[in-house]
Predict the 3D structure of the following.
Amino acid sequence: MRPGFRCIVDDIPAAVAFYRELGFDDVGPRAGGFAMLDGHGLRLMLNTPGAGGAGQPADDGTRPSPGGWGRIQLEVSDIDQELRRLGGAGVRVRTSRIDGRGGSQAVIEDPAGNPVELFTPA
């Protein structure tokens, strides 16, 4: 089974275009408020609030919404080059390059504000 990650987004077409730019393929199915993509060894499922089971409120009434800090990590060969390329395409940068012991990272946002980490190993 392929590992999967689900994101809550506001706009399915905008989110699909963003993740295609990051190397994901739109594999369908496309249903109202849902899309499925594959890339980087990961199945990515996108839901809008209220769509399907994943878009339904929690037991306490809390409704799914985009954002937060949990994120997928995509390894890139040159983080600075990717930041320039994606910045030129209008992608929002949440954190610019941060260098750590394991490598360098930067966090960008999809159109709904969900974080995506770009990572270049040391």
